[in-house]
Amino acid sequence: MKKKVQQELIEKIKKLTKEIETLKKSEAKHKQVERLLKESEEKYKTLVEHSLSGITIGQGMPLKTVFANPALSHITGYSINEILSFSYEELKLLIHPDDRELFFNRYKELLLDEKRSVVPQEYRVIRKDGSTRWVDTFAIKIEYQGKPAVQAIFKDITEKKRAEASLRSLLEQYKSLQNNIPIGVFRTSAGADGLIISANPALARMRWFFLYSFSQCKCNYQ
């Protein structure tokens, strides 16, 4: 009987020892997960803080900014503390009046979006000094500190917009010049048998040009 009790006690000790080892392994694994998670968070934080694109997180209805990185501060001209302290009405003033309704409607849609779609959109931002900057925005619904939120990435595309506007202006000037110049101007496609793909009004009025085109150049007027 005594031997049986001893055997049961030994078995219980073995079982407890095994459970303790399991707990130790579980605790070690938990600590490892915590360490990896902390490292991941630190890497993400470093990436966000050094990003050239503005990054912000908004929560609630009405919208409240709960996170902003230095790049967003650079784009808007406001300090991070100023951005985080803005009321909803103050945040509205950051967006150009013509883009304001679209911007805040998109925020509402994303906050209610269960599919977590990535929504790209271009907006104009009003800086602290009153100047306007164009931004290309990518926004997605996330969870931040246990609550639904919208994370948005802002890329400054002001110079790109200016370049596009300059190019359009130059093309319009060229088109106006070509249409009003009293000298015939035309453009053909590549190759010996190329087609005339554009011609100005002055050229179209030159009857001899058509005769020469069809008999000598093997070109077609369009």
Cα end-to-end separation: 113 Å
The dominant shape is: elongated
Largest sheet composition? 5 strands, antiparallel
Question: What structural class do the secondary elements suggest?
Answer: alpha+beta
Radius of gyration: 34 Å
Q: Would you identify the regions where 5 or more consecutive residues have pLDDT less than 50?
A: 214-222
Q: According to CATH, what is the class of the largest domain?
A: Alpha Beta
CATH homologous superfamily heading of the largest domain: PAS domain
What would you say this structure looks like, in words?
It is a single chain. Mean pLDDT is 80; it is low at 214-222. A five-stranded antiparallel sheet has the order 2-1-5-4-3, sandwiched between helices. A two-stranded antiparallel sheet has the order 6-7. It contains eight helices and seven strands. The chain has two domains: 1-50; 51-156, PAS domain (Beta-Lactamase), CATH 3.30.450.20. The chain has 222 residues and is α+β, with helices and mostly antiparallel strands. Helix content is 54%, strand content 22%.
Q: In a few lines, what is going on in this structure?
A:
The chain is α+β, with helices and mostly antiparallel strands.
